[in-house]
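Case study: 3-dehydroquinate synthase N-terminal domain-containing protein.
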Amino acid sequence: MKKLWVNAVPYNKEITIAALESGAEAVVLPDGDSEKVRQFGKIKTVEKSGDIRPGVDVEFIDIAGKSDEDKAAAVPKSKIVVLRMLDWTIIPIENLLARRAKNIMV
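Here is what the predicted structure looks like once written out:
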């Protein structure tokens, strides 16, 4: 299943509204900004006090090499893993899908 999260860090009202209007599942925000977004409509927020909490429900991992891939694969399967690729000459997605099978976002 494909899901769309929009990164609004630093906070940007126009991007947040566009995410809501486009049907995004969630918007990633600076800590403490969930209430700003809830006034515009119903959308999940990703921040320390949001609906989806980094470190609790989701892990954001930068991928630059094999050790980062191992770190991502070791995250409990109950958590969502969001990957940021720092070096596109290394494409670990296939490996991670084989090891985790679900809850990976790039």
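For the exam, be able to explain this: The chain has two domains: 5-46, 58-105.
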